[in-house]
Amino acid sequence: MKITILGAGLAGCTLTHLLQKQGYNVSVIEKDNDIGGMGKTYYKDGLKYEYGPHILYSRNQKVIDFITSIIDVKPTVVYVAAYVEGQLVDYPVSISSIFNLREKKKIIEELYYLNPNAPDRRNFQTYVASLMGKTLYDLFIHGYTKKFWGIDPCELSSSWVPHRISFRTNDRRLFKDDWQAYPEPDYNEFFRCLMGQTEIICNREINSYNVGSLGEDLCISTIPIDQLHAYKLGRLPYRGYRLEVEVLNKRHYWPNNYAWVTFPNDYEYTRICEYKHYNLQQSEKTIISREFPGDKPLHYPINTSENEELFEKYLLLTCQKGNLITMGRLGLYSYLPMSVCIEMCMKLVDRIHLYPNLSIEGRINFHCEIRDLY
Length: 374
Prior knowledge:
There is one protein chain. This protein has about 375 residues and is of the alpha/beta class. It has helices spanning about 10-20, 60-70, 95-100, 105-110, 125-130, 135-150, 160-165, 185-195, 225-230, 275-280, 305-320, 330, 340-350, 360-370; strands at about 1-5, 25-30, 40-45, 45-50, 55-60, 75, 80-85, 85-90, 180-185, 200, 220, 240-250, 260, 270-275, 285-295, 300, 325. It has two domains: about 1-40 and about 185-235 and about 300-370, 3-Layer(aba) Sandwich (Rossmann fold), CATH 3.40.50.720; about 80-170 and about 240-295, Polyamine Oxidase, Chain A, domain 2 (Alpha-Beta Complex), CATH 3.90.660. It is built from 14 helices and 17 strands. The radius of gyration is 21 Å and the shape is globular. The two termini are about 30 Å apart. The mean pLDDT is about 95.
């Protein structure tokens, strides 16, 4: 079977590698002149940074084995803080964080009456407030969420809260997975190893695609699903940010190994990242970036019920064609960690031989089962 993949980001590169190992003939089309999509590593004065930043972390041993079979990695761990009440406070919010805050008495009283096992799932705001109380929510979450997403938090769905928001006792790590790593030397090499000698058609913008244009039997698209269909039902909104990158003549910018600090209630930017704290690059200098949120680039799908309904309409259009599959963060309109994206690709390849013979409903269920892995 000949397969064409649209887009050479993480999903496209991973699928190419997995499919070629299964003996499929794979072609790749990419709009840029290089691979990696939003996962690329960039350099300034020899120091590494990414739009992200990106961390490999997982509890799935198959995913871990896959990554480490492709590239060497350095074990790492990510610590984060929030700038609240004029001080740096460990984040995620924890019991120990509370005692550094002026309103600790009120916070403790609110926590006493909460039942985190029965959260209020009406929307993002009600869910998070029911986990940590209104005061902690207002201090750490509300302002950041509104600034980052550009809408009121009550408009966001609660569905992805369990993946992104937690209240801790004493664990300072942002991610709780025991396996956390950074590829050696960078993500660019990771993508090159995934692609191998695959021929890539670069610098080709795709605003729609007719399956069979390159003589393929099946097309897997990782470009935005609304773009795949020439926006015929309207555009799905995204958030991104403008990055201001600065190299400093000092070993470190943030204390306590903070990889980044969020600014929920002050300043136009949402966070300042210091990459050395997680990529472990050795240098007498350090590199930081300030992130200013906006509508571009297309990095983060906006998780509202209205946007989900539009995605489902585009998914139906996709599934009406028995030789077209949509994948990845942009193709599935889902905010995916890198490890979950890889896991989804693995599941797709394991079952891809079944796809052409499925009914339209079966194809929709096929996509939903993969999307529900996160």
